[in-house]
Amino acid sequence: MRYYSTNKTAPTASLKEAVVKGLAHDKGLYMPEQIKPLPQSFFDGIDKMSFQEIAYTVAEAFFGEDVPADDLRTIVYDTLSFDCPVVKVEDNIYSLELFHGPTLAFKDVGARFMARLLQYFIRKERSGMVNVLVATSGDTGSAVANGFLGVEGIHVYVLYPKGKVSPIQECQFTTLGQNITAIEVDGVFDDCQALVKKAFLDADLNAHMQLTSANSINVARFLPQAFYYFNAYARMKALGKADNMVMCVPSGNFGNITAGLFGVEMGLPIKRFIAANNANDIFYQYLRTGKYEPKPSLQTLANAMDVGDPSNFARVYDLYGGSHERITSYISGATYTDEDIRQTMRDCHATTGYVLDPHGACGYQALKDLLRPGEDGVFCETAHPAKFKEKVDEILGTDIAIPPRLAAFMKGRKSSVEMSREFDDFKAFLLKE
Ligand SMILES: *Cc1c(COP(=O)(O)O)cnc(C)c1O
Predict the structure, then answer these.
(1) 359 lines ligand 1 (CB under 6 A)
(2) How far is CA 131 from CA 208, 328, 362, 433, in A?
(3) pLDDT tens-digit series, residues 266-285
């Protein structure tokens, strides 16, 4: 399969090139040249298939030309070492729980898949060590570090701003050891990002070591997210609830929802989608006005959705040929303030006993507000509430339990390299590696 850039001026790329480069030369996002429809027989029997079997069928359609069946099966099965179950919250509203992976958020799926696909390419071509540089304000670092943990042939450097990530986040990438090095930068997130960007452009460093990024726009992180939409449909079908099924996705950079939309292009019978935003409502406004107007991001309770210029908008736009009419006929939007999010979390907890995290709360509320009679809604619960324990406990007056895998990180010993925000220091450090 070839991959083209949404900006249409860069040459097309092979899967390997698209994965290693991340972004095309013209700064566009890579899109597969074809999205292959799956046969009706697959959808007829999908409710009897396991999540892993379903995911392998979907993966085959995207990656089958580039990765031999046995290797692809191993990659998919290893990636999905945890389930993404559908849980009933109340009549007609279900939660697709995407937080059962190692770092308790949906980004585990894409990060684990990308790590294994990259490892496959490294082995096949017997290329030397590949070094992944990632700057994080908290959540991406943990998903990438854990996704790549123990993967041979790859070393990961996680750069994070000293004192600016929560203790729960920090322990998820500073206690791992093995092929993960945490770098604590004396600065803010933007300094970390600037160090990484400069490193990619530095000739000495590139001659010394093979560098790549694990950015969330990478096709190998983005496409595997389609897997769990098929699983949601299968589990709803088994309940007899899939005929008028609506999917609602708490959205920031729009990678998650776009993967679901790709699923629909493959024939997945989801009636329509809802994108739930927090106060960063750029997409919501686009649906209303037809104008895409990026803004500086606002800090909210659902901070992983604090995005003022969602990068995957380019993919949504490309997928629907730039037609506002087509986009609005299939996707609707909602936007919620922090006060709305708090109220939703309290109401849902009081009436159903279900504990939402602030991101999932946007998805749940959008279903409450926009679901029509006869429809069944599934929202993505994108993170485990314990990841935001202080906030959740304060809002609900609870003391929610920390899952053992998260508690295990917190017991680990922190190890990180202290770094100034000067590029020369960072470069000198990498040249000694
Ligand atoms: C990243 C993230 C989101 C937003 O997902 P996008 O793919 O960027 O739209 C939502 N919730 C949580 C918990 C996240 O970590």
Answers:
(1) yes
(2) 11, 41, 36, 10
(3) 999 999 999 999 999 999 99
Return the residue matching tokens 């609900």. 396
Q: Which atom of ligand 1 is nearest to the CA of 258?
A: 7
Q: pLDDT for 224-236, tens place per residue?
A: 999 999 999 999 9
pLDDT (tens digit per residue) in 70-80: 999 999 999 99
pLDDT tens-digit readout, 51-67: 999 999 999 999 999 99
Q: Tell me which of 16, 21, 48, 107 is the catalytic residue.
A: 107
Q: Tell me whether strands 86-90 and 130-135 are parallel, antiparallel or unpaired.
A: unpaired
Q: Tell me, using a 6 A CB cutoff, whether residue 139 lines ligand 1.
A: yes
Any ligand 1 atom below 6 A from CB of 256: yes
Residue 213: per-residue pLDDT: 87
Whether residue 107 lies in the annotated active site = yes
- Which of 96, 98, 106 is the pocket-test mutation for ligand 1 (most atoms within 8 Å of CB)? 106
Question: Does the Cβ of 277 fall within 6 Å of ligand 1?
Answer: no
Distance 304 CA to ligand 1 centre (A): 5
253 lines ligand 1 (CB under 6 A): yes
Q: Is 386 in the pocket of ligand 1 (CB under 6 A)?
A: no
Q: Which of 253, 245, 380 is nearest to 306 (CA)?
A: 253
Q: How far apart are CA 336 and CA 370, in angstroms?
A: 13
- Tell me the residue ranges of DSSP E strands in 162-288: 180-185, 210-213, 245-250, 272-277
State how far the Cα of 328 lies from the Cα of 323, in Å rounded to an integer: 9
d(Cα 201, Cα 426) in Å, to the nearest integer?
13
CA 105 to ligand 1 center in whole angstroms: 8
- CA pair distance 336, 358, nearest whole angstrom: 11
* Residue ID of nearest Cα to ligand 1 atom 8: 253
**b/e sequence 160-177, b meaning 16+ C-beta within 10 Å:** bbbebbeebbbbbbbbbe
Nearest CA to ligand 1 atom 2: 304
Cα–ligand 1 centroid distance for 250 (angstroms): 7
Whole-prediction pTM value?
Answer: 0.95
> Kindly report the CA angle at 381 between 379 and 385, in degrees rounded to 5?
145
Residues 160-203 pLDDT 10s: 999 988 888 899 999 999 999 999 999 988 899 889 989 988 99
Ligand 1 contact via 109 beta carbon (within 6 Å): no
> Rounded distance, CA 108 to CA 216, Å?
11
Element (H, E) at 332: strand 331-335
